[in-house]
Amino acid sequence: MFSNAPSSPWIRRFHPAPEAARRLVLLPHAGGSASFFFPLSRALAPAVDVLAVQYPGRQDRRGEPCVDDLDTLADLVAAELSAWTDRPTALLGHSLGAALAFEVARRLEDRGVVPTRLFVSGRRAPADQREEAVHLLADDALVKTVKQLAGGEIQVPDDEVLRVALPAIRADYKAVETYRYRPGPPLATPVVALTGSEDPKVTPSEAGRWSRYTTGGFDLQVFNGGHFYLVPHLDRVAALVRETLG
């Protein structure tokens, strides 16, 4: 039987699969939490041992300071994952989580751990920058922006609950909007880019440019839908991940 790493405030293991041959680490979007990936974890268990990352400043970690710098967050997540490398491990990040997963993969490779796959969802390639300043919006405008991006694909909390989460949302947007790619060698990790056909944050062409960041092989999958396409297409996404990981 595979060993289990010690408990960590960073890791949620909703459906432990200690006998699974492969592991998948999930990194949520700006303002998101580990629980966003509960349905995907359930869909992949018990074939894959799924870990969902919980960032500071939300849900049961709400009392902790948020991390508003993506490189710092990548350092912290990579350090936490060092205890979970007892089997082949892939990464899947959505939106902010995609940029974060890429930087975590770079750090893992620097330590001699090459992820089996990097799934990047709903995010442009690292050097494709847009000048965005959502994190500087007033509260009302930030709430409106979050609701618009949801596009009816995910359920958004009512305004009162959403405003409680604004510090984490704002910090996450700052982290991803101020992130700047540092040139370096391409990953050895194979990359799979996933995107919605109508995503306002990334075009299929922009998603395709992730191919430049790996020597390990690349695939692009486009789903009908917006930024949160992976919610209505949960079964298809789970099947793709399961098939890709083998």
Automatic annotation (TrEMBL):
Source organism (scientific name): Streptomyces cellulosae
Protein name in the entry: Thioesterase II family protein
Keywords attached to this entry: Hydrolase
Family from the record: Belongs to the thioesterase family.
Domain Thioesterase TesA-like span(s) in chain numbering: 28-245
Cited InterPro entries: AB_hydrolase_fold, TEII, TesA-like, Thioesterase
Keyword Hydrolase part of the UniProt annotation: yes
TM annotation in the entry: none
